[in-house]
Amino acid sequence: MKSQSSNRSFGLLFFVVFLILGLWPLKNSLDPNLYLISISAVFLILGLTNSKILSPLNKLWIKFGEILGMVIAPLVMALVYFIVLTPVSLIVRLFGKDLLGLKFLEKKDSYWIRRNKKRLSMKKQF
Description:
Number of strands: 0
Number of helices: 3
Largest sheet: none
Radius of gyration: 29 Å
Structural class: mainly alpha
């Protein structure tokens, strides 16, 4: 049942994509691309009838998404690391901040932090 629903979604998605691509030339007052519109009609028919013909194309599309995810996710994480975190770290180090309190201080007797808040009852936690 799941693959039929997936095939239907796949067919309708590609119907919309090819229809938009086929009608795109209308934006510039040109004739629509009839080949792409006919391909979109085929995807519409196959999608509405839950055709098994879409299964291999659907599996190929899913594999393409997985490969794309394996490539894009590390790139985005590397960009976030090098564009956001590295400059922030360098600025913090430049100003000599110890945000986590990791520096060893010889004059300090204890690293315990005193809390001035009153303790609450643990009977109704949520």
